[in-house]
Each structure stands twice: as C-alpha cells, then as structure tokens.
Amino acid sequence: MIELSGLRKYVHDGAARLEADIKFIDMPVACPAETIYFEVDEDCDFVFSTDTYDAFVLVGLYLAMYYHTDLRIHGNISKKLYKNLTWYIQKILCDFSDKLTPAKIFVDGFATLIPSGNVIGAGISCGVDSFSTIYDRFVREDDPDYKINALFIFNCGSHGGFGEPHTQITFKSRVKRALAVADELDLPLVVVDSNLHQFRDEENKNTVLFLSFYSCMLSMQNIIRRYYYSSACSYQSIKKFGRKPRHYDLAIFCDSYLLPLIQTERTELIIDGCQYRRVDKVKNISDWDIAQKYLNVCLIQKGADSTNCGKCSKCLRTLLTLEILGKLENFSNIFDVEAYKKDADNYKVHSLMHLDEEIFLKENVDLANEMNFPMPVKHNCYVLDNRVMIVEQ
Ligand SMILES: [Zn+2]
What we know:
By secondary structure, the protein is α/β, with parallel strands linked by helices. The protein has helices spanning 54-66, 79-96, 128-139, 165-185, 205-219, 235-241, 250-258, 278-285, 289-294, 313-325, 337-353, 359-370, and strands at residues 2-12, 15-24, 35-41, 71-77, 105-110, 119-123, 150-155, 189-194, 224-230, 268-272, 381-384, 387-390. The chain has three domains: 2-110, no CATH class; 119-278, Rossmann fold (3-Layer(aba) Sandwich); 309-390, no CATH class. The N and C termini lie far apart (68 Å). Zinc ion is lined by residues 298-300, 308-309, 311-312, 314-315.
C-alpha cells in the first residue's frame, strides 16, 4: 500500500512549500523520499491549495500501479479527478505500459472545490511548443477568459535529475531566459520548484516527468482557472506514430486525450498545439521578434550560455524547418547557423532515409515538398569520409 497524508503548507528558508508525506507500507522497495513537495517564493504562498491532495495523487497513483499495490489518501481529493482516474485514466496508463496494473484509490472524501482563481496560465520553456502557445493565446488572443495572463516554469525533472548540481544550473539559466521574456511581454512569471523527480528512475523517467508537470499545475488551484499545456505532436501525427513511443513517451502516446481528463471542478487543463504540426508551429512564430531573440531548443546545455549549438538533433530539425521556410537568417543571432550549414546535407539525407520512423523528420520532408524546397535526391548525392556530398546543380 502507498499512503499519502499530512497535507500542509509552510514557509521554509524564504520559500512557501506545499507538502505531504508519502509512505510505502509493506512493500519490497523503499520509498525514494519521505515527502512530496512543491515550492514557490514566500510572497506567492497564496497560490497553493491545502484542501485537496490532487497535486499528489498522480505520482502516488502511478507508483501504486507500477508496484501493483493500492493508494490510500488520508484526506480529500476532487470528485471529478477521482472519477476520471478510476474510470478512464488508469485504462490509458495500462495501455501505455504492460508494467502497470490498475490500483484502487481509497480517500477520506471529496473536497468542495469552487473556482476561485482568475489566472489563465501557460508554461514557458522558450521552446517551439511553448512559444507557439504563448503567441496564439496571448499575443493574438483578445478574450480575457482565454487570454494568458501569467507564465509558469516548473523544476520537476525536465532540467535534469533531482539533486544533481547541473540541474540547478540549467534550471536557473532557463528561469533567467523565461524572466526576460515575461518582462518583455509584461506578464508575471511563477517559478515552481519540487522534488517530484526523486520518484523517477531511468525506466519510468519520462512517464513520471509528464505526470509531474500536470501535478505542478494542480498544486496551484487557488489561482489557476485555466492552464494551457503545450503538446509536442499534432493530432495527425499521433494517429500515425502514437503507438511507437509506447512504454517510453507518455506525451506523444496519449497527452492529446489524457490531459483533458486531468481536471478538477476548479482548474481546467487545456492541451494546446495538437492542431498544428511542429513545422507549422515554427512557421507560426518565425516572424515574432520574441522568438527570434529567445527561442531555445538546444539539447546541449552549457550553463549560462544560451546559444543554440546548431548541431544537436533538436537544433538540426528546427533549423531545417527555418531553412525550408526561408527564415534561417532571422535566427542567426541565437543559433550557430554556420555549424548547421556544415551538417545540413547529412541531416537532409538522414531525414529522407528515416522519415517513416520519426514524426518530426517526416514533417520536415512534407514541408519541403509543400514549399518546393529542393531536398537531396539519390542521383546527386555521394558519400566522402562518412559525409554526404551533394553535386551542385
Ligand atoms: Zn543544439
């Protein structure tokens, strides 16, 4: 049995913390930590709701399903979330991984949750997905019920492992960039720290990561009315490639239909971005001055240096999209475009060879066809020293 209890909020070293105890009872493995917590600046302590365990239940339930036991919550949760977890979400998770089995959730009761916040939030990673959401739902949106009015950044596993020194360095550099964007857009930025990534291991790293993102959003039900979560994939791509990341990438596998079930009576999570292919999102933001100044997709983290290397897989696919769109030079201040140009021919051939294996490669090849962009063809390629060379036309 996994137990959650002792929900509380307190101030600790200048930070406000929402915390609950977690215990593994009569289980063959030790619990990775004694508590789960979420933390914000002391001044922002009003964001946390202490009347419900909703922010703790997703990771607790996942662990119960993974270790084939039940979850006992010594307190209340949202009735809507409880029903969705029991009736639908567990089925989706079991379909995602053969290692998961259904678990019973025992609760003391249900929290009376009345919408109280007026925050329309969105995450800011400064990647393509988050910028496309912010561009559409802030810059181009006029309806105050749906226009973003606050940005969020979470430390729950996407910046590295818990307690690893480079994780805090990476997180701080991303917060700095997010703050610069928030200042330019005149939006508040809420920075949320947590220890949710203590509960992941190599095997379930990505699954716990996505559940942790959703948990951070649910921790702030006092202020959040709606929250846009930026998806990675289009509905179209999920239909074609959705089964491939089974066991591995929960977001690509199911976030388009999982996220709408992670709701409470107080807070609505909205999946945004599935209406676009990734290449369409790049096109969407390619003329936006903020994206041209702050876009950061690079997998190579170099501490405070925020330049995109131009050589890693995420830089290559983004720059190929920009090249096809004729917008490469618009981003030359933040990407090493010269490094990209050296690898571009190889990458184009790689994209053509593997387009049935990866969504984002196929989308670039499709975009090239749509834009009549000349991709390499067999009769004008040859290989020299493991590099593809193109015969000039
Ligand atoms: Zn890179």
